[in-house]
Design a protein that fits this description.
Elements: H1 15-26, H2 34-40, H3 48-64, E1 68-78, H4 108-120, E2 125-130, E3 134-135, H5 139-152, E4 158-162, E5 165-166, H6 169-178, E6 182-184, H7 203-216, E7 219-221, E8 224-226, H8 232-245, E9 250-254, H9 271-284, E10 290-292, H10 296-300, E11 314-316, H11 328-337, E12 341-342
Parallel strand pairs: 1-2, 1-11, 1-12, 2-4, 3-5, 4-6, 6-7, 8-9, 9-10, 10-11
Helix pairs in contact: 1-3, 3-9, 5-6, 6-7
Length: 362
């Protein structure tokens, strides 16, 4: 008989340990480690451990951010002909996809119509998204700020933007002064995987932009995409990096493999894996606003309502940049079915300023 102690059971197959971990997170007595998150990603779908994962994620959400659902929308203010080669994007340089309308920066009247539509769909915020490298000082920044100033005065939705890399701090400061409340700038994936999806700009450039955003005092919306070929270890790495930059909102997308893009031949994420991954994000980021965003319809199909079992507290409503979304009425009904309520009117997500909270972004 061996004198060796038996190795402790993996968290992935220990429902009581998962329940205890969730209780400890709710009580603010522990922070989930990278090793624990990695084990949670290995839970067998449909198992008792999976049930405890979802139950724990909901308890954590309720304790930290509540059951009131935030809703956001986006509009493509400059579509197509992008200089960047992001492998997932239909608008990227080198993409063969042509199933969308390319435009220059759209007029203020079109942004106003999009604002009214977003508000009617139940969104509290509308993000202006542009397909380009980013914003530099000069005529481009002037044009962008003029449009934001007009947009910010309509009062229908919170004026947010997602305009790519920022050349310097002055760009961020002027965009805030023009009226933008939240700047969206995704990490997209783990640092160790980033060069597999984009080579026309670096992960470090994204971090620099995030520093500018936070220092300006704008809120930061930053998340990424699951299912681009990254490992589960890299998903945990991505979660840890989001912890470091402390976004005010974290949009979590699933790859929609679009024909003509470099990732167009990848299979969509398995729906059970997608839902369990969202739940692990809640364990790792208990105090964060977690928004399920693009790709959810493609991945979850008739199980779309189950996103509310994962601990998320925000959802993107309406259409995406180049693909269609879900009827807004679905979200109100699905949220109510799972005990959540949709907020009415404009809600604020204010940035705290500083570099990256109390932590180093890099």
């Amino acid at each position: 008989m061996s004198d060796r102690l038996a190795a402790p059971a993996s968290l992935s197959c220990d429902p009581l340990a998962i329940r205890h971990l969730a209780d400890e997170v709710v009580a603010r007595r522990t922070e989930v480690s990278a090793a624990q998150a990695r084990e949670l990603l290995d839970i067998v779908p449909g198992s008792e451990a999976a049930r405890e994962l979802f139950a724990g994620a909901q308890r954590i959400r309720d304790a930290f951010v509540g059951r009131s659902l935030r809703c956001c929308s986006v509009v493509n203010v400059k579509a197509g002909n992008c200089s960047e080669n992001c492998s997932y994007c239909a608008q990227a340089s080198g993409s063969a996809n042509v199933d969308y309308k390319k435009t220059k920066w759209i007029p203020d009247e079109d942004i106003a119509r999009a604002s009214a539509s977003a508000a009617a769909n139940g969104a509290q915020a509308l993000g202006l998204v542009a397909a380009w490298w980013g914003v530099k000082e000069g005529a481009q920044l002037d044009m962008v700020c003029d449009a934001i100033e007009t947009f910010s005065q309509n009062g229908k939705v919170r004026p947010d933007v997602n305009l790519g890399i920022l050349e310097n701090q002055r760009c961020a400061d002027r965009i805030k002064e023009a009226g933008a409340k939240v700047y969206g700038h995704n990490l997209e994936t783990a640092r160790s995987f980033f060069d597999n999806i984009c080579t026309t700009h670096s992960f470090e450039e994204r971090l620099d932009t995030i520093r500018y955003i936070k220092k300006s005092g704008m809120g930061l919306c930053s998340g990424g995409i699951i299912g681009m070929g990254e490992t589960r270890e890299q998903r945990v790495e991505f979660m840890e990096q989001l912890r470091l930059i402390e976004p005010d909102m974290i949009p979590l997308n699933f790859l929609n493999p679009i024909t003509g893009t470099k990732l167009g031949d990848l299979p969509p994420v398995d729906p059970d894996e997608a839902l369990q991954t969202l739940a692990v994000f809640r364990f790792m980021l208990p105090e964060s606003n977690l928004m399920v965003a693009g790709g959810k319809e493609v991945v979850l199909k008739d199980r779309l309502h189950e996103v509310f079992t994962t601990g998320i507290n925000a959802v993107m409503v309406g259409n995406y940049l180049t693909t269609l979304g879900t009827e807004p009425s679905f979200w109100k009904e699905a949220a109510a079915r799972h005990g959540l309520t949709m907020r009415d009117g404009v809600t604020e997500i204010e940035g705290a300023g500083g570099s990256c909270g109390s932590k180093d972004c890099g």
